[in-house]
Amino acid sequence: MFEIIGERINTSRKLVQAAVSHRDSDYIIDDVKKQQAAGATFIDVNAGARIGHEEEDMRWLLDTIQPVCEIPLALDSPDPAILEMAFAMVEKPPMINSISLEKERFDAMMPFLNAKDCKVIALCMDDAGMPESAGDILARAKTLVEELNKIGIPTANIYVDPLVQPISTDSNKGVMVLDAVRAIKAEFPEVHITGGLSNISYGLPERHIINRTFVTLMMDAGMDSAIIDPLDNKIMSTIRTADMLLGHDQFCMKYLKCVRSGTIKS
Amino acid sequence: MFEIIGERINTSRKLVQAAVSHRDSDYIIDDVKKQQAAGATFIDVNAGARIGHEEEDMRWLLDTIQPVCEIPLALDSPDPAILEMAFAMVEKPPMINSISLEKERFDAMMPFLNAKDCKVIALCMDDAGMPESAGDILARAKTLVEELNKIGIPTANIYVDPLVQPISTDSNKGVMVLDAVRAIKAEFPEVHITGGLSNISYGLPERHIINRTFVTLMMDAGMDSAIIDPLDNKIMSTIRTADMLLGHDQFCMKYLKCVRSGTIKS
After folding, report:
1. CB neighbours of residue B261 within 10 Å
2. Nearest CA of chain B to the CA of A251: how many Å?
3. Residues of chain A with pLDDT > 90: what percent?
4. Which of A106, B34, B98, B153 has the fewest CB atoms within 10 Å around its CB?
């Protein structure tokens, strides 16, 4: 089953920031419920945008969300101290968003993740920056999987993010990441592939059709999770449809259910 | 480059049938010009629907279309005698639509195709009916390629149609044809893959999203041609976008041109 990491609870979004700063729990609860109803399998929580308030905002968000949330949370911060604090607050084993190969982040994250019961998003980013080739992405994924395995995180709990880059900067950026995903899945069949998708269309017009065509290609390559807005009907319709076409929807039951509920539209 | 076999000139379509029976050349010419402008690379011509009139209708259509058509024609009939007559009338080497492994058709087509300068659509159909597995499709494609090679048709002139079947009848029908296309391209890298697409969504609601998601998957597997309506903006938008994402559109120039001309819309 394709996993949807619902990205809406993020203080970089204006209305969420307003709700968080006014401690408007109704707004947050309503948004979380909508994401769940739309098919989210994780709720991402990012409280990083109000500088100097991340810890208190994250605490308040977790206190607000957990009583109404039936699915696990994805704890989202670049700061390992915030993730550690948040981890101690959650009831269900969470997803940690994220570790990378940037030395400072990596060194701070590994002790924190050691032997923890959680899922981990592993970004193929290092101190040299974004990866430059499919081989580069694969090499970084391999290091991340091996290092995480060493501290007791099983491969099936690792969500590699190959870092989608804009095709407007280089016509080869689509094929590069698709090849990388195929190579990673060939080497580590149990690993999950996740990430944001909309970077692919950065700088181009009519971005929706690029994003939905790209998620289809990524799913074909082996992506089985994405960090998206579950209330975006266009991308969700495409994901449901691709899942059916790729043989993951017996008798087309899930597809038909989504059509009936109005969430799949041509 | 993805090749578009424009399917509109077919007497099974009501308005075309009316135009053909009234010898309304303006209608036909206008339609052909629209298909060319929309990016068709072949114009399919099928005069089969007016029983007893196929020969005269095909002659009239070819006389009408050729003076205004800058691209090759795809001569479309189950009757080898009609194809032979039409072949003698065309100025540019045509595409022949189609041969199959059904014995009667095969035996009548092979002498006609022998050493001809043309492209050939080869359907993976035999007297047992539709193929039942990816291996079955591959085996039929292999026989078709080998037999056509023997009579001097090079592999690069063969357009294998793996025969898309409705996913509503079996959740595996999508994966079956995708696997088959990958296997055929692995065995015969030069062969083209073509076909109609809309069968995949037969019997299901919201067919457009299924068709456009499916063409994306098929292109990823190796399909490089399709028999479609070039005036269907939704499917054409997806094909242009997938072509870009698969690395066939340097600097996104073709994509941007289509957006500017209004033919790509999210």
Report:
1. 10
2. 6
3. 97
4. B34
